[in-house]
Design a protein that fits this description.
The structure is a single chain. The chain is of the alpha/beta class and 141 residues long. The protein has six helices and five strands, in the order βαβαααβαβαβ. It has a five-stranded parallel β-sheet with strand order 3-2-1-4-5, with helices on both faces.
Length: 141
């Protein structure tokens, strides 16, 4: 059984990556760990959203355990989820190692002909530092 760590951030890129993993799951047996990382730097606007980290963690976990991961389960994947806190690239790399992942899969937003130049910081760091194979799934913006 192949083990995949799939990064989730509620973006179009993450949805494209999920669809790629679902397609892969239809072809081979996979175990997917979906990882959402809450930024420990607080730069993602909790105050503006007027919710605390426990409430956000609970909401994200609920979404991951149900509607967001349902397409993966429908494709035959065994799915677990993890909501953690820290720097996204660091936490995704840790998850890849901890899970013994065969692949780390991330979605990246498309930027026309400039996608290489504007590759997201998290995706770039994961691809550069991972000891595991990394799949970066392009997604049109």
């Amino acid at each position: 059984m192949r083990k995949i760590v799939l990064g989730f951030d509620d973006s179009a890129g993450a949805t494209c990556a999920r669809e790629w993993v679902a397609g892969f799951a239809r072809e081979t047996e996979v175990e997917v760990t979906v990882v959402y990382v809450m930024s420990s730097s607080g730069d993602w606007g909790l105050a503006a959203m007027q919710i605390d980290t426990d409430t956000l963690r609970e909401r994200v976990q609920g979404m991951l355990d149900h509607e967001w991961t349902d397409p993966l389960r429908a494709a035959g994947a065994r799915v677990t989820t993890r909501v953690t806190e820290g720097h996204p690239a660091v936490e995704l790399l840790k998850a890849g190692e901890a899970e013994g992942a065969d692949l780390i899969v991330l979605g990246v937003a498309g930027h026309g002909g400039f996608s290489g130049r504007f590759l997201g910081g998290v995706a770039q760091k994961v691809a550069h530092h991972s000891t595991r194979p990394v799949v970066l799934v392009p997604c049109a913006d």
